[in-house]
Amino acid sequence: MTRRGARITTLLSLAGILAVAAWVRLAIYPHVLARGEILPQVDGDAFFHLKRILETVREFPRVPHFDPMMNWPAGAFVPWADGFDLGGAAWVLALGGGGDPGRARIAAALWPWLLGVLAVAATYGMVRTCLPGRAWAGAALAAAAGAALVPGSIFVGLLGRIDHHGAEALFLVLLFTWAMRAFPPVPAAGPPRPGAFEGEGALLTGLALFVYTGSPLFAALVSVPLLVAALRRGRVLGSGGPGLVAGAGVAALLSVPFVRDTGSAWTFKNPSLIQPLFVAGCGLAVAAVAWIAGASGRGRVRRAAIAGSALVATALGLAIATPVPAQVAEAVSGWLLHRDPWIAGIQEFAPMYRTSPSGVPPWSGWHMEFGWAGFFLPVALVVVAARAGARSRARVLLFATVTTVLLAVMSNRYSRVAIPFLAATNGIAVAAVLGRVLPAGPAGRLPAWAPLTVLLATAADLPTLGLLLPPRPRVQPIVDVALHLRDFPPPRSDAPGVLSNWSYGHQIEVVAGLPVVVNGFGSYLDAPRFWEALEIFKDSPDALDRYMLRNRLGLVVAGTATIGSELTGADESPSFARGGLNQTYMRSLPLSPLLIAGSAIPGWDVPHLPTLMPRYASSAVVAGIGFKLPFLWVYERVAGARLRGSAAPGTRVLAELGFSEHRRPHVYKAYAEAAADGTWEIVVPLPSGARWPAFRTDPAWSVSAAGGPAVLVPVPEDAVRGGRIVQAGALPPPPPGG
User: 671 in helix, strand or coil?
Assistant: First the structure.
């Protein structure tokens, strides 16, 4: 085949791989459009990014920083960097979404898809840079084929997965590709053009920091090969050091609006001056090493002393004048070592070497992120080290692969940035092996079907097939509830806030348009209030009522998905045992009735919640128990109607009301003991005769004493909301011998 024909074949193969990558990331569209509108998938972060992108479109190029609807009622600044959302807004405007809300939402949902496809293309480009020449073109195609279908790579690029993980992976690939160019492709080749090289590094570094505040970690990784190259070449301009310093300056300038609005200049949790300062330090270290290596004899010693003294003096000055050391220590301890109590409880940040709280073993988690490719990585590393490792750029790739995979082992979230390097290493290994065993010419020059084989082998993996062939479209329980709240908001404007689990705050705020106490920013907004909101679910009903009144909260969204089990079933939750409710759990937690519409369990002496009125339930139910129990309930804070009457002293009075949600029948129960004078009172939060969306109650409460004949007592809604007294009268005693 001629050189031109080989180039055309390569380009067509790459186009086919990118087309496959594009389609598999769109295959989730039935879920994203399950209700005829864009509903982001996976978690709440995607919802908040959607909101922020659309707000930025309206105020372009300004990115709003303060959100009065989170950390309710105080409000708070958004701790995310601006770059991802500003880029998403620019993408929306480029697609004509500025004046069309529907098109804007679709374009925003396509933003992570675009970044995912670009990451696949960047993986191809990285391998071509690592091993240039026609002989290794097949390796680059095989790497792109792997990156297209590794499950973790698909996951971050899904339509509607509006989060910055895909952007992180893309920029880290581009940064390491840039670092590779610090090494000549062959020993005889000259260095890159210094000005263009440093300019590229400045642009990539600045944008990486603008997109993700954790990018200083990536800059530190990239600095290692740059330091090695600087030692060899001994030239400051072209070492990459000035590019890192200039990139830090770009990031600092881009962060000025955020720092100005928030007044927070020294924190690792938000965009601030700490991140650019750290990257600038990496750049100065690279430049210093290059400057020292450029001298010889005593000149080198003198330069080393000058540079070392300057760096030490700068570090001491920063340690004295700023909280930089403490912030860096907190970042390493909290994020990487999981000592932050909030971070430690999030599966995304959990180490891959531990069994997850839901019982998923490490090997299974590895498989879910990396697919089959992850298990072949150790062999691939050996093959690449043996066949291509003598080349400096290949050593950079090996370093990048090992370090990013180790980061992934320490924290699940970094598996997304490791995938392109894993795919690149596996692709080169495939090319090296097949180039040896097939009559295909020099190592790496593969027959046309070889990358297709990699593509098909990767696609046959179960986690990938699960993403390619998603089950019947369904709406997540929290989105189902949030859609209800959007259509039927709380009636009281003086208490619009919603209390729920922090992981559901973004969905409630964005979909329902209601303010929330806690959300996916966790303790980073207001740590004392965050922990108070979590601990209140362990307190008493009276304490919860006072908390809601104090914080102007009218609604609680709770259930097994917030205080009991995760969405996979009852077998993972302490709330359940042997296919039913766990008696010990229900009796020990005062607010445990939140799992069951606030109802009492008289036989277990579990009282009902007298001021929380259930008004809606998620259509999805918990799997693995013997009755249909919704994941989530919507409760409205009410005064409660005061049922009063008389019965024999000391007898238990039981009030019951049949109700249904989504046509599933239940019975709400409440009880009290008659006093010594025979009087009793039960505060009931649920009206009879209610006809609400997907929720119905029977025409009257059934009230009985000690199992005697029941008295039917209608309780209107205004009595429940206004705290009115409803007389039940004297309850008949049980029949003799009953």
Answer: strand
- 60 phi/psi in degrees, rounded to 5: -50, 135
Tokens of 28: 């989730």
Task: Report the half-sphere exposure of 4 (CA within 13 A, side-chain side).
Answer: 0
Residue 586 is inside which H or E element, if any?
A: helix 583-588
Ramachandran quadrant class, 522 (left: phi over 0; alpha: psi -120 to 50; beta: rest): left
Omega cis (within 30) before 61 = yes
Question: For residues 284 and 249, is the Cβ–Cβ distance under 8 A?
Answer: no
Average pLDDT (242-269) is: 91
| Phi, psi (deg, nearest 5) at residue 701 | -75, 150
Contacts with 704 (C-beta within 8 Å, 6 or more apart), sequence order: 653, 654, 710, 711, 731
Contacts of residue 103, defined as CB under 8 A and 6 or more positions apart, other chains included, come to 95, 96, 97
Does residue 714 contact residue 699 with C-beta atoms inside 8 Å? yes
| Best CA proximity match to 214, nearest among 158, 250, 171 | 171
Q: Which amino acid is at 197?
A: F
Structure tokens at 84: 């991802």
Categorize the per-residue pLDDT at 665 as very low, low, confident or very high, splitting at 50, 70 and 90: very high
What is the 8-class DSSP label of residue 636?
Answer: E
Percent helix, strand and coil across the chain, each to the nearest 5: 55, 10, 35
SS3 category, 681 = strand
C-beta separation of 170 from 477 below 8 A: no
Q: What is the pLDDT of residue 389?
A: 80
Distances (CA, A) of 30 to 159, 389, 619: 10, 45, 18
DSSP strand pairing (679-684 vs 725-730): unpaired
The residue among 271, 229, 277, 247 whose CA lies nearest residue 65 is 271
Closest CA to 570 of 621, 620, 624: 624
Cα separations in angstroms, 610 against 563, 594, 657, 674, 682: 19, 11, 14, 17, 8
For 111, the token pair is 């933003």
Tokens of residue 721, six digits? 């909301």
Residue whose tokens read 């995760």: 566
Distance of CA 606 to the CA centre of its chain: 36
pLDDT tens, position by position, 107-157: 999 999 999 999 999 999 999 999 887 778 888 998 998 899 888 899 899
Spatial distance between the Cα atoms of 180 and 388, rounded to a whole number of angstroms: 14
* DSSP three-state, residue 511: helix
Question: Per residue in 688-722, pLDDT tens?
Answer: 999 999 999 999 999 999 889 999 999 999 999 99
Token duo for residue 265: 């200049």
- Alpha-carbon distance of 367 to 16, in angstroms, equals 26
Structure tokens that stand for 502 in this block:
């922090």
Burial class for 644, CB neighbours closer than 10 Å (0-12, 13-18, 19+): middle
Give the up-direction half-sphere exposure of residue 615: CA atoms within 13 A in the CB hemisphere: 24
Q: Is 566 exposed, middle or buried (0-12, 13-18, 19+ CB in 10 A)?
A: middle
Cis preceding linkage at 735, omega within 30: no
Quick check: 223 and 285 in contact, CB under 8 A?
Answer: yes
- With 0-12 / 13-18 / 19 or more C-beta atoms within 10 angstroms meaning exposed / middle / buried, residue 185 is middle
